[in-house]
Specification:
Layout: E1 5-10, H1 18-21, H2 29-45, E2 49-54, E3 64-66, E4 71-76, E5 81-89, H3 92-105, E6 109-111, H4 125-134, E7 142-146, H5 152-169, E8 173-178, H6 196-209, H7 221-227, H8 232-242, E9 248-254, E10 261-266, H9 286-301, E11 321-327, E12 330-336, H10 345-358, E13 374-381, E14 385-387, E15 398-403, E16 406-410, H11 420-431, E17 440-444, E18 446-449
Parallel strand pairs: 1-8, 2-7, 2-8, 3-6
Antiparallel strand pairs: 1-10, 4-5, 9-10, 11-12, 11-13, 13-18, 14-17, 15-16, 15-17
Length: about 450
């Protein structure tokens, strides 16, 4: 039986969207890929309603504002993308039930439709950015809430009452906690620099990675004030909604432009264990064992092991190969070669395993304490072939996109990448290829080992 509530912690910078950021979106590729993964989970969960809390929805400081309109619309015109328009149905019954629950619990709340200055029916970018990734086709109705500046523990209680309201109506809901972390990570950050910005973000990420969202309620108030976040109250409200036994997983954290962007999921729907990292109880393939021995030796002792050629007739003597690392279900490194660079496939794997463990720019070097629970996968690439967009199939083929010397690759069968448009867009962003540039496309198959 699946959880009654699936949660997503979602960043909301408009610049993440191609319509706004253009080629600059490549700086947030970790967040973009994580949101694509979360979108796939949302499809699997298939809620009746998505409840979303946004720090940028019209609000007042001492009460929660709840949207009860039956039609919700918004655009990103103020960010230079007038064609980026969205509309969703509102779940009026659930919104009113939440209002009633808040009243019974003594939580200050008001109906946005009853407040002239709160622009009822209008969606802000704190809603539009996450939902454009999670539900671009307006598949599910929304309930939109603004946070307040009441105490943090009041937001936890609000989450509890939201979950109770959903149970009252038999609603299966997903809760999207929209918000960014510190806006003060670097001297050129929009909120100015504060040395505690990084400290605050570390505490937030650690609490969520430990599945202890209630710990967020107890973060020191001075740290919060000086850290300059905008999402903490949304995250805490999600914590109250999912309860103390939540299972959380951080998908990515990055800090471009001096702002911390965190993507995480809570109570993800029954994952397909084994297709990416091997079936429990089965022995590792020798190519994966080679990658593991390589990483263990290099991280512990700085030594490069011998790369003796494989005897397996199913493995080619030479090929491009990618080595992918995961810990606790989270990506920890991925480096590879499109075409063979070394004399043997074994040497290709050895070199790329070291790079994945020590040189992926998205992650710090792997530490000795991370070796014991490291999941390793190796993809051996077939020779790419030119193709058209119509020839792509993201479940069976990877893609290589090339334009004016820039080249981006995306492996096949990735969570959340369900159509060729998404696949090509992500590969293009990784290469810094701007929308509208002329591209050449190749596809390739892989043999995946775990």
């Amino acid at each position: 039986m699946g959880s009654e509530i699936f949660g997503v912690i979602a960043p909301h910078p408009p610049i993440m969207l191609e319509q706004v950021g253009g080629h600059r979106t490549s700086v947030t590729i970790a967040s973009i890929e994580s949101m694509a993964e979360a979108a796939g989970m949302l499809v699997d969960f298939n809620p009746d309603t998505v409840v979303i809390m946004s720090p940028h929805s019209p609000a007042i400081s001492d009460a929660f504002a709840i949207e009860t309109a039956d039609a919700l619309t918004g655009s990103l015109a103020q960010f230079g993308a007038p064609d980026a328009e969205f509309s969703y149905a509102g779940d009026v019954d659930l919104a009113l039930q939440i209002l009633g629950r808040f009243e019974e619990a003594g939580l200050p709340a008001l109906d946005r439709a009853a407040a002239r200055d709160l622009a009822t029916g209008t969606l802000d970018h704190g809603v539009l950015v996450p939902m454009s990734f999670l539900d671009p086709d307006s598949r599910w109705p929304l309930v939109v809430l603004s946070l307040s500046y009441l105490p943090l523990d009041v937001h936890w209680t609000a989450g509890v009452e939201i979950a109770a309201a959903a149970r009252d109506l038999g609603r299966r809901i997903a809760f999207v906690a929209s918000g960014d972390c510190s806006h003060r990570l670097t001297p050129d950050a929009p909120g100015g620099f504060s040395p505690v910005g990084r400290v605050l973000d570390e505490k937030i990420v650690e609490a969520i990675a430990d599945s202890d969202l209630e710990r967020l309620v107890h973060i020191d108030s001075e740290l919060i004030d000086h850290g300059g976040e905008c999402g903490l109250r949304s995250f805490i409200t999600l914590g109250g909604a999912v309860g103390d036994d939540a299972r959380a997983r951080v998908l990515s954290y990055e800090g471009p432009w001096g702002v911390g962007y965190l993507t995480a999921v809570v109570n993800e729907p029954t994952p397909d264990e084994g297709t990416k990292h091997g079936m429990p109880g089965l022995p590792e393939h020798e190519i994966v064992t080679l990658a593991r021995r390589t990483i263990d030796s290099y991280v512990r002792d700085g030594k490069l092991i011998d790369a003796n050629p494989f005897d397996d007739p199913n493995l080619p003597p030479r090929a491009g190969a990618f080595v992918t690392l995961h810990r606790e279900g989270q990506l920890r490194g991925c480096i590879g070669t499109i075409a063979p660079v070394y004399d043997t496939l074994a040497e290709e794997v050895v070199r790329n395993a070291i790079q994945a463990a020590t040189a992926d720019p998205r992650f710090p070097r792997l530490g000795e304490d991370e070796l014991a629970d490291l999941d390793i996968g190796v993809d051996v690439l077939h020779v790419p072939e030119p193709c058209t967009l119509d020839d792509l199939d993201p479940k069976n083929y990877g893609v290589i996109v090339t334009s004016a010397g820039k080249r981006g690759l995306l492996l096949p069968d990735l969570d959340g990448v369900d159509d060729s448009q998404t696949q090509v867009a992500i590969a293009s962003r990784k290469a810094g290829i701007q929308p509208g540039e002329s591209i050449a496309v190749e596809r390739f198959k892989v043999d995946r080992y775990a």
